[in-house]
Design a protein that fits this description.
single chain, 704 residues, alpha/beta, Rossmann fold, 3 domains, seven-stranded mixed sheet, six-stranded parallel sheet, 23 helices, 24 strands, 39% helix
Amino acid sequence: MGIHNAFAALARLARKAVTPALDVEDTAKFPLPNSAASIRLLVIANAVIPTVQLSLLSPLADSIAAGEVSLEFLTEEQIKKVFGSNIRSHDALQWFRQRLINSKATCIFICRYSGPFASELLSYSRECGIGTVYCIDDDLLNVPREIGEAKFAYHNHPLRLTAVRYLLEEADVVYCSNERLTQRLGELGIAREFYVGSLFCAGRVLQAPRDGQALTLGYMGFDHAHDFQVALPAVVRLLRQQPHMKFELFGRIARPPQLAEFGDRVIELPVVQNYEDFLAALAARRWDIGICPLARTRFNEVKNINKWIEYTSVGTAVVATRGMIYDSCCAEGCGWLAEDGGWDDALQVLATNPSVRMRQVQAAQRRLMQEYSLEALRAQVLDVVGLATRAGMVRYKVVEDDQAQSPPRAMKPRNQESVNMDDTIQKITDSIDRTSNVIGKVREPASVAFDGFDEHRVQSGYVESLSDDDLKRLNEMLPWMCFTSDTKGRRFGNIAWKGKRETPQVVPDPRIVQMNKAFGLKDRSVLEIGCFEGVHTIALAQFGAEVTAVDSRIENVVKTVVRCNLFGYKPTSFVSDIEKAEDMARLPRVDFVHHVGVLYHLKDPVIHLKRLAALTGRGFLLDTHYATPEMVNNKYEVDGHDYRYFHYREKGRDEVFSGMYDHAKWLLLDDLKGLLAELGFGSFQILKDEQQRNGPRITALVCR
């Protein structure tokens, strides 16, 4: 079989795994993929980029052909083709969710993704017990200007940086291309373990080196002119000394003016997007020598050896920069390592000594087969997928059983020599079969109807007189994450996402009813910590309290003001980060505090309670998670007293249901009671103590 036919066959195998959903012109129909494969991967990426093709499609081609694996793609490029510039709109989110549902994935493979809906993606995977892999092969948190202004602006957009960091921190498995990259991510504050295998890219020997006089020198790259400058002077001198040789630039690199003197001996080859077609085109060029120059930048220090593998596959001798990333693969005569000023010697020797060039390529191709085979990479990818799949199903079981602990998100790679590919597939298949019926139940789309809500209708003040059109407009104006139902059953607000706040909120909340029964709120001053969207604020006002409602997020304050005003109430409401001393100092002294769903999001709950106690005259309603002794994994000291706690990772400012900082401390229940007693709140009446999905949680009335 010829080289072009071989790659065409491989490309067909890969395309067989992709459902018609790849035809973005027809995505509105949401075609359902064939679910016969035991491993069904939904690949999320900005586009079908080379990393996807190199690290996933190529190694899994045999598994795809055998029907063991199927793939479907969901890309930012597809979203753009459907929604244009409105890729972060509500309609785009609904479309994105439907694609997730229709994929019937057993694992979600997220490759370098920095597009919209990252948090919604992981929320969906957690609700459905689907494992997630985040695959990364560059320092996407620090893309430098040297690779081009367009790429620099693209990758460094704040929304993209936020998405990458969030996925790095929260995916079940982070699959890193090399150990150097994991160290870099650790330096950038990504505090977790990573999966790093023995290889990240692989290849096959596609053709032997061409014997005889060297005719062609080549370089391939995309917008890496600063790298090319490292070798350019030596390339110019070689072309002058070897007038029979030509030089080819493959990719998106402008011809530098230094090469103008060589006329048509310098050939520029266009970009080939499909990876297999690219390899076939590269092989057809029959390069004798291929260069891998790298500027000595921190970004380049964590890159990968793709060029060595690709050059070696097609029988091209490699010259690469010494002391960067190529030293290992080029060792023992498998490539020529050049110092910054030593490129002339390397190019001259390989261009004028065919036997040296042949021996180098033959040694490199032996290493390629032994250490960088597609079979080894296939086993590794299946291991990564297996780890993530099992993590997702463990989480699903945790959710079903209402257990406190989530599965670990830090997965260590197993020894590749011990991985049996058939066993890996069978284990994943068996686990999926045992849980497929249950997973199907939780993946039905949520209703987002405008009206028809019969439960929890509440007299809604001025909302009642709004027309349907005005209320619909109001629901779209703000990023509502919960809703109430007026007496006509119409929705005021919105759901957060599937499975989150998708039924009308109860007004008044039963906890506030108990608070009023115990304390008597009429004409009393109440401080509401964490007003969210004003649902509890309304209930407190309904019982006659003078309410001051604060929240650390401005959008929540705005939504509280709007909801309360339309219900006919005018509480005092403003932004306050209750972990800051200056913000706490601005809070009023009150009779009671409504403290629901906030304490377990704080990084310093002890200091917060001490400051709050000075403002609280009589007592408060406290609703919070706490740690059991088995959960405790750390301690900290406040005013000479040690407090043990469970370190809980938070997602920060941009995740609406999360704390404002990187972690929270869940105190032991006994420590919490003891602290409040020391602060003068000797009565601690527990109304409810239950085990929830994330951990144990109490509702309590606390008073002096």
